[in-house]
Amino acid sequence: MMRLHSVQLMCLVLMTCRLPFGPVDGAATLKIIETGSAKEVLALLAPIAFPIGITTSVLTGRGINKRFSALGAFKAGFLGRVLLGFVWLLIYKFAKTVGGDQPGIYTIIILGVCCQAICSEIMFVSQMAFFAQVSDVSMGGTYMTFFNTVANLGNKWPSMLMLSLMDQGPFIFSGWETFVELTTICSIGGVAWMAAGGRLLDRLEQMNPSDWELSSPSSRVVTEDSMELINQVKKRRP
Question: Where is the signal peptide, in residue numbers (predicted)?
Answer without folding.
Answer: 1-26
